[in-house]
Design brief:
The chain is α/β, with parallel strands linked by helices. It contains eleven helices and 16 strands. The protein has a six-stranded parallel β-sheet with strand order 3-2-1-4-5-6, with helices on both faces. Strands 7-10-11 form a three-stranded antiparallel β-sheet. Helix 2 packs across helix 10. The radius of gyration is 19 Å and the shape is globular. 42% of the residues are buried. The structure holds nicotinamide-adenine-dinucleotide (NAD). Nicotinamide-adenine-dinucleotide (NAD) binds next to helix 2 and helix 4.
Length: 320
């Protein structure tokens, strides 16, 4: 094992919120052999203990990672702490009320994480993820490149999956991003979408595979509404979000400098104000190393500005 591999294998990852997202993320890390140790922290200690036991029994069949339930003290030395703790929206509850409840939950979690794992990169999955990433940044007092939201990495995967199905090619050969809010105001950067480096419209012309504006609209709506559809069918989403979180962790731990649409504090030069939203960003061992300013069509840029103002309103409504 090289020094680098050794360092990776010894990395401790903390997970706060061992619910469906947290436990599935732990399983993703385990099956990929990405880390050395996983600590699950949850208000519901029995749930964390049960998940840790179940996961640990898979270690002899995958990678010998240490998995255990613990307290905040056990996060000491963690390189990454992922937070997926939070309440879900109650029937009839507004988005703002949910934001307030989850902000209160973050007030009880983030200081404990900071105290015990001051060197960690914080990865936020709790919804609304852009807002909660901003809240985590405010509460932690860490440099913003160390507080990362899962953002639209998941939405981007859904977009590429649907495009791949439509075009009949491997989704890994499609470059394209969903940007802005992880939510209803998100934006598809169609003008920057390419297949094997060929701009999408040109690819379709060359291949003779039609892609009408109506079809594009339908595909984007399916991307945006996928979570609603899955939640209506099975109650929650877990696998793809866990894979997205695993991909982010891989990029950080292997210093891959991968470009992923994580939620991050956008540079002032974008003119969106002080907020977190998703733009393609370079991710490596020091977290978000650079946020890319994506050249967009006029309509896309207007839509991104609208998405940013939705997020600014959410932040202002919280009176942090
Ligand atoms: N960012 C994304 O792409 C994405 C995708 C799916 C779900 N989510 C979000 O992830 C979050 C978790 O979803 P889930 O399906 O795992 O929910 P879940 O209800 O299964 O799990 C939430 C867990 O948080 C724990 N918890 C609540 N308050 C806590 C506290 N103060 N301290 C420690 N633990 C606490 C609960 O006990 C529970 O185990 C939700 O906010 C959901 O909307 C985000």
């Amino acid at each position: 094992m090289t020094d680098d591999r050794h360092a990776l294998r010894s990395v401790k990852v903390g997970i706060v919120g061992a619910g469906r997202v947290g436990a599935t993320f732990a399983y993703t890390l385990l099956l990929r052999g990405l880390v050395g140790e996983i600590v699950l922290v949850d208000l519901d200690r029995d749930r964390a203990r049960g998940e840790a036991m179940d996961l640990a029994h898979a270690a002899p069949l995958s990678y010998p990672e240490r998995i255990r339930a613990g307290t905040y003290d056990d996060l000491s030395g963690a390189g990454i702490v992922m937070i997926a703790a939070g309440a879900s929206q109650k029937p009839g509850e507004s988005r703002l009320d949910l934001s307030k409840r989850n902000t209160e939950i973050f007030r009880s979690i983030v200081p404990q994480v900071v105290k015990n794992a001051p060197q960690a990169i914080l990865l936020v999955a709790t919804n609304p993820v852009d807002l909660l990433s901003y809240v985590a940044w405010k509460l932690a007092g860490f440099p913003s490149q160390h507080i990362i939201g899962s953002g639209t990495v998941l939405d981007t995967a859904r977009f590429r999956h649907l495009l791949a199905e439509h075009l009949g090619v491997d989704p890994r050969n499609i470059h394209g991003y969903i940007i802005g809010e992880h939510g209803d105001s998100e934006v598809a950067a169609w003008s920057r979408t390419a297949v094997a480096g060929i701009p999408l419209d040109e690819y379709c012309t060359r291949c003779g595979c039609g892609f009408s504006e109506d079809e594009k609209h339908g595909l984007f709506e399916k991307t945006k509404n996928a979570a609603y559809e899955i939640i209506a069918a099975k109650g929650a989403t877990s696998y793809a979000v866990a894979a997205a979180l695993g991909r982010i962790v891989e990029a950080i731990l292997h210093n891959q400098r991968s470009i992923l649409s994580v939620s991050t504090r956008v540079p002032e030069s974008e003119g969106f104000g002080d907020l977190y939203l998703s733009l393609p960003a370079v991710l490596g061992s020091s977290g978000v190393e650079r946020v890319l300013s994506l050249p967009l069509s006029k309509e896309e840029h207007e839509a991104l500005k609208r998405s940013a103002s939705v997020l600014r309103e959410q932040i202002e409504a919280l009176h942090l």
